[in-house]
Specification:
heterodimer, A: 324 residues, mainly alpha, MetI-like fold, B: 331 residues, alpha/beta, Rossmann fold, 8-stranded mixed sheet, 13 helices, 33% helix
């Protein structure tokens, strides 16, 4: 198991280097930092001196090494617009996005398992048929449409829930959280629901189809033949085997959730990283864009590594494979 | 005398969109305590379905459409789901065909054994583990303590089938239904598993229903045989009688197709054609299109099982007068 984890972590580092290189290339090839820094009237000679001073004439690899070295020390450049280190800007926006993703994940996890399992073991029940029909629609409707419909129904017509911003937040150890105030939680509901709406139907269908497949296997038939109770057969024998493929997909899909925060945050004016990213694009704030790319890349890699390690814990065959 | 298991006029159907399909058509057989019965037939003859019907574990859309299954004096096809669960894996154990698929890949052998005991007995985990160890020793698993904490994929097919047998033994059942227990195994291991199974049936005083397509195995192991064809029993009786004097043309064909019955180097006999699909069972005797004795009445009327030698041997054939002594000789 230890060897497995070490190997996974090594792979993660490799992926990070690639991401860093892409980030570096973006910065390197979009725009000219010297032109951004100095005005029109600075002479060519002065520009060249500045280039030399900034190390822009060094070999690409040396520059990339410097980029990585700085990144490792938390320096991802300075945002042109915010006039602050890009990482600081992102860190100040991260809690909002993380809480949004967290809210959506809580919704997804608390519904996909019970509903997925139920629809697998009772495929003919009217509830299962209903869920299947609704989930087909859910998969097809884009998140911004869901968000706008939710805003219209619950915000405009019923006026039950707030539709923009994070509401009252409190600062806990440098982290602005909306999870601790009633107002913050109310503000979280609609954005989380619309973010969850893209993944939830997918997960329900995935769990259902995986579980139905597992229920047809010989070992499940053998479990019945051993006279086990139905709950043991369903929730231990079948479900544990269902989890394996589902976990793999989870890892990938959590990353996609982050991607969809771009849309959700824009519709709900949610002051998170996604909102910040779109602003940065409009302002051509390359340093901030690159920093965002690297930070999101790190999050992707970390989450996927954790998911893989969880997978190893559940699947004994992976564990053995990791043992040389 | 009451039998351990008595199946009377069992009928199994599959509910399909275009109507019900009869998989088992009115079969009856019995099994006494400690007796070994072989159910033989080609794939699709309904032998596995018969096995699963006994403990009512038919895969959907199969269902028992008629008949009675009496086990230890109780009509078990009328029991509630819970009462039947208490019999499954407890009084009647099953052994499946492919040991690579039978054990749950993500649970340890120990878990899969302990849970079986605890499903039927009110005992603690430590005690259940002791029992599991005892049974693993009975099936000659080396270092059983270690095996309990291992996963199925860490063992070979033969070893897994031994473990499946150990699981079947856990609750000291009165009957074991073994569905092709050696078919998926290496030939060198098959004999060992079969020997173990028969030995255990003797020492543990268990009845055995051996479901297989392998007439050779059945003839070595069982006391009685039921030959199935297209969902019906077409010949049944004591193994010695059937192997030496088969009376149904199908059984004759099966025996003639065994390598051991022919001279080395000569061509093996084969039964022409294929078993009919359940959707298109021929009228009259289902075997008539492949039968070398088929006559007019075989195409029109279905033959019933009739006694051929003093109530020990039955065959369902119109041409029984022609089949005597046909073994090894026909054509």
């Amino acid at each position: 198991m230890f060897a497995f984890i070490v190997r996974r972590v090594f792979q993660a580092i490799l992926v990070m280097v690639v991401i860093a290189f892409i980030g570096f290339s973006v910065q390197h090839s979009i725009g000219d930092p010297v032109r951004d820094m100095v005005g029109e009237r600075v002479s060519l000679a002065e520009r060249e001196a500045l280039r030399e001073q900034l190390g822009l004439n060094d070999p690409v690899l040396a520059q990339f090494g410097r980029f990585c070295w700085k990144a490792l020390h938390g320096d991802l450049g300075t945002s042109y617009f915010h006039k602050r280190p890009a990482l600081d800007v992102i860190v100040s926006k991260a809690p909002a996005t993380l809480e949004l993703v967290f809210g959506a994940t809580v919704i997804i996890l608390s519904f996909c398992f019970p509903v997925g399992i139920y629809t697998a073991i009772q495929p003919r029940a009217w509830f299962s048929r209903f869920v299947m029909a609704v989930s087909t629609i859910g998969v097809a409707v884009p998140v911004f449409l869901t968000a706008i419909v939710l805003i219209y129904v619950f915000g405009v017509e019923l006026q039950w829930l707030p539709t923009y911003g994070r509401g009252v937040t409190v600062n806990v150890g440098g982290w602005d959280t909306g999870l601790l105030t009633a107002d913050g939680l109310l503000h979280l509901i609609l954005p989380s629901v619309s973010l969850a709406s893209i993944m939830l139907p997918l997960y329900i269908r995935l769990i259902r189809s995986e579980m139905m497949e597992v229920l047809e296997t010989e070992y499940i038939k053998f479990a019945w033949a051993k006279g086990l109770s139905r709950w043991r057969v369903w929730l231990l024998h079948a479900f544990k085997n269902t989890l394996l493929p589902v976990i793999t997909v989870f890892g990938v899909e959590i990353g996609i959730l982050f991607a969809f925060t771009l849309l959700t945050e824009t519709v709900f004016q949610w002051q998170g990283m996604g909102f910040m990213f779109l602003e940065a694009v409009e302002r051509s704030d390359t340093a901030l864009l690159v920093a965002y790319l690297v930070v999101v890349g790190v999050m992707f890699v970390v989450i996927n590594t954790i998911v893989d390690i969880c997978y190893g814990l559940i699947n004994p065959m992976v564990r053995i494979a990791g043992n040389p | 005398m009451t039998h351990l298991l008595e199946v009377e006029n069992l009928e199994v159907k599959f509910a399909l969109r275009f109507g019900d399909l009869t998989a088992i058509d009115d079969i009856s057989f019995y099994l006494d305590k400690k007796e070994k019965l072989g159910i033989v037939g080609e794939s699709g003859a309904g032998k596995s379905v018969t096995g699963f019907a006994i403990i009512n574990l038919l895969s959907k859309p199969g269902y028992i459409a008629g008949g009675r299954i009496r086990f230890e004096g109780r009509e078990i096809n009328r029991l509630s789901a819970e009462a039947l669960r208490q019999i499954r894996g407890n009084r009647i154990s099953m052994i499946f065909q492919d040991p690579m698929m039978t054990l749950n890949p993500v649970l340890t052998i120990g878990t899969q054994m302990v849970e079986t005991v605890q499903a039927h007995r009110r005992i603690g985990k430590a005690e259940a583990r002791e029992l599991a160890l005892e049974k693993l020793r009975k099936v000659y698993i080396p270092s059983p303590e270690k095996r309990l904490d291992q996963y199925p994929h860490e063992m070979s097919g033969g070893m897994r089938q031994r473990i499946v047998i150990a699981i079947a033994l856990l609750t000291d059942p009165a009957l074991i239904i073994a569905d092709e227990p050696t078919t998926a195994l290496d030939v060198t291991i098959q004999a060992g598993i079969m020997e173990l199974l028969t030995e255990l049936c003797e020492t543990e005083a268990m009845g055995l229903i051996l479901i297989t397509h392998d007439l050779a195995v059945v003839s070595q192991v069982t006391e009685r045989i039921a030959v199935m064809y297209a969902g019906r029993i077409i010949e049944t009786g004591y193994t010695t009688d059937i192997v030496t004097h088969p009376r149904h043309p199908y059984t004759i064909g099966l025996i003639n197709s065994l390598p051991g019955t022919r001279q080395a180097g000569s061509r093996l006999e084969q039964i022409p054609g294929m078993m009919p699909n359940l959707t298109a069972i021929p009228e009259g005797c289902a075997f008539h299109p492949r039968c070398f004795l088929a006559a007019d009445q075989c195409r029109r009327h279905r033959p019933e099982l009739t006694a051929v030698s003093g109530g020990r041997h039955w065959a369902a054939c119109h041409r029984l007068d022609q089949t005597l002594g046909h073994n090894h000789l026909h054509r």
